[in-house]
Specification:
Blueprint: H1 8-18, E1 22-26, E2 28-29, E3 32-33, H2 38-42, E4 49-54, H3 59-67, E5 72-75, H4 80-91, H5 99-112, H6 124-133, H7 139-146, H8 150-164, H9 169-178
Parallel strand pairs: 1-4, 4-5
Antiparallel strand pairs: 2-3
């Protein structure tokens, strides 16, 4: 280990300064969404390899990690041998995504792209809900966070899914990441 960060700003700065072979990244960095740094560190020259590490099985997070170029996504419940092997392989630049993962996640990514030339103008409230939705939050959690009813959140979510042309929350999270809304 060459460093540890408690905020996204500190993390990106540290990665730029230290140029590690691998960033082992928790999906949560303090209270922030760790997935937001994946595109930034993958865009560095040379790109930094990223292995996501999470305690939660969240398809939205996994799809966003894949879409943004992470080398893999591993659950904290993984056996120590698998973790060590995954860290070595990701540090060497290998992709840990299995073919079945790639097919499934490619379908999410493709479905999350708007048609050519189409721009979905989201209201500020829809953007706010989309950002929270992309963290894997439920409608109830979003409603508590924003101080609105769960029914209102449900209506907003349904409307924004139609507006951006996707069919589920995971695709919406990937769409948001691809369109730099996170």
């Amino acid at each position: 280990m060459c460093g540890e960060a408690s905020s996204l700003g500190e993390l990106v700065s540290m990665v730029q300064q230290l140029a590690p072979d691998l960033l082992l990244l928790d999906v949560r960095v303090g209270e922030e969404d760790g997935l937001n740094v994946v595109p930034a560190v993958r865009a560095l020259d040379p790109p930094v390899n990223v292995l996501l590490f999470s305690a939660h099985d969240n398809p939205s997070h996994e799809a966003r990690a894949y879409a943004d170029g992470a080398n893999g996504y591993l659950y904290k419940s993984a056996e120590v041998d698998l973790l060590l092997d995954s860290v070595r392989r990701a540090a060497a630049g290998e992709s840990l995504w299995q073919r079945t993962d790639q097919r499934r996640l490619n379908n999410f990514v493709k479905a999350s792209k708007p048609p050519v030339g189409e721009h979905a103008p989201l209201t500020p409230r829809e953007q706010e809900i989309l950002k929270i939705l992309a963290t894997g939050a439920t409608n109830k959690q979003i409603s508590v966070n924003l101080g609105i009813s769960a029914e209102t959140v449900k209506e907003h979510v349904q409307h924004l899914l139609r507006k951006i042309g996707v069919t589920d929350r995971t695709q919406a999270a990937v769409w948001a990441a691809r369109n730099n809304l996170l």
